[in-house]
Amino acid sequence: SKEISDQSIRLSRINGKTKEFEVPKKLRDRQKINDKQIVALAKYADKIQKHYYFPQDMEWALEKDKLFIVQTRPVTTIAQTAKSEKTEKNSNVKFAEAPILAGAAASPGIGTGTVRILKSPKEIDKIKKGDVLVAPMTSPDYVPAMKKSAAIITDEGGQTSHAAIVSRELGIPCVVGTKEATKLLKDGQIVTVNGQSGQVFMGAGVKKTEEEKALTTKLKHSKTKTATKVYVNLGQPDRAAEIYRYSSQRSDQKKRAGRIYYQAFPRPADFL
């Protein structure tokens, strides 16, 4: 069976700039690539998974009827997802009312918080720790706000969208493709998001078992093991400053992290 997501926005490259356009309503729910291309992608995915010995999150592009694999990385949340599914079935989680929204289940878990609607990345400062982020869709510019969120809801997207992939990496419950979350929900409302079933409920009428509470904590704080110790992520320069400022015993690696931060963010006096 096929799952075709509704697509209301398309991006096009015009005169060297990427511009956003609205997709005509009659085209929004149409299949985007043909069956032959779907089969070809599936074969690529199978081959890449066998090469890396692990399931992959893949990004691809289609140009002049030719498919290109542009990026692939391991799926790091498979074990957590399986545990969440088991917990969901065995727990006594109950909701007081029928769901007010439904979409695609993108990241497992249950999160409750205050709704904050972001129409663009420029509004990410509205999000406080524990809020529920609601947006038309997300992009890398939303990540600082996503990290603070108790749950994420989007109007657009499917299980391979940016919101879905990042929320799974962060261990945050997420429901995507609701089509009308930004219209139905209001800032300040309390909602509960069930990322396993793809449903959103009004209020905090959820009863969690101790097992589920422990699982949620584990999902949020679990880290991927690496062969070398990670001192700082260059994608988060604010952490470099923190490490450099507060570490009493700086190793050579930590000192380098501090220098990287300094080079990336010079002092105002350096421009004089």
Automatic annotation (TrEMBL):
It holds the Pfam family PPDK_N. Its cofactor is Mg(2+). Keywords: ATP-binding, Kinase, Magnesium, Metal-binding, Nucleotide-binding, Pyruvate, Transferase. GO terms for molecular function: ATP binding; metal ion binding; pyruvate, water dikinase activity. Residues 127-198 form the PEP-utilising enzyme mobile domain. Residues 2-90 form the Pyruvate phosphate dikinase AMP/ATP-binding domain. The keyword Kinase applies. The keyword RNA-binding does not apply. PROSITE patterns: PEP_ENZYMES_PHOS_SITE (PS00370). Belongs to the PEP-utilizing enzyme family. This is Phosphoenolpyruvate synthase. It comes from Candidatus Woesebacteria bacterium GW2011_GWF1_40_24.
